[in-house]
Amino acid sequence: MSGITHDYMEEYLRGLIGDREDELYELEKYAEENAVPIVQKEAGKFLEFMVSMKKPKKILELGTAIGYSAILMSKAANGNADITSIERDENMVSIAENNISKYNFNDKIKVIQGDCLEILEKLDGKFDLIFMDAGKGHYNHFLPHCLRLLAEEGIIISDNVLFRGMVATNDLVKRRKITIVKRMRDYLETISKDKDLITTIIPMGDGIAVTKRR
Ligand SMILES: C[S@@+](CC[C@H](N)C(=O)[O-])C[C@H]1O[C@@H](n2cnc3c(N)ncnc32)[C@H](O)[C@@H]1O
Q: Which positions bind S-adenosyl-L-methionine (predicted)?
């Protein structure tokens, strides 16, 4: 069990989504074989839906890994979005850049190598959609920067916010994860209680929060 939904529900929903047939399928296989964490299938579909609905011109992603979600978002935007993605692991950056080039997304996706916090501090511009998918223990630290970089009508989508259910109940918490869990609870409190923001938290995948300004 994922700690969030029942296995039968996950299997059913994944069955409805089905297998992808394009480059995303190859990237999913690579991620599985090499134990690279990428966005879960249902969360990927949600992301695709949100991009297709919101039609963002500029997207910021925290956590590139092998470039899977960046390519997914670029495809969902029909190539009409410029995506900036931040990744600190040099090896991941090189794999992501190879994939981006191999599948011809060079002019749409730019990867910046470095720690999110350091890069965010220096980053300018306004983004219509920000996908937070790096450094689970640091979402609260990224948030002020993301809000500064968020366009007036922009949305922030944060992944893994329920962290295998641990965020919702102490019964599931593993000792070595306690700091991340506490920090994620703080993050969810902040985005849920800030009167200037409106947030919805969806128990899908590993837990997704969607936040915008009121
Ligand atoms: C869950 S993976 C991203 C998956 C990707 N968004 C996808 O779905 O295809 C998280 C990535 O964030 C990177 N990361 C973690 N903490 C980071 C930080 N503080 N700054 C930059 N990258 C970070 C990790 O190296 C890892 O590759």
A: 39, 69, 87, 133
The H or E element spanning position 189 is helix 178-193
- Protein residues whose CB sits closer than 6 Å to any atom of ligand 1: 37-39, 63, 65, 68-69, 86-89, 92, 115-116, 133-135, 138
Which tens digit of pLDDT belongs to each residue from 110-119?
999 999 999 9
- String of DSSP letters for 71-131: HHHHHHTTT--EEEEEE--HHHHHHHHHHHHHTT-TTTEEEEES-HHHHHHH--S-EEEEE
Can you tell me the distance from the alpha carbon of 188 to that of 152, in angstroms, rounded to the nearest whole number? 21
| pLDDT reported for residue 124 | 96
Instruction: Return d(Cα 202, Cα 210) in angstroms, integer.
Output: 8
**Arithmetic mean of pLDDT, 102-129:** 98
* Domains, the chain, ordered by start: 7-213 (3.40.50.150)
- Mutation choice for ligand 1 from 40, 68, 69, 87, CB with most ligand atoms inside 8 A: 87
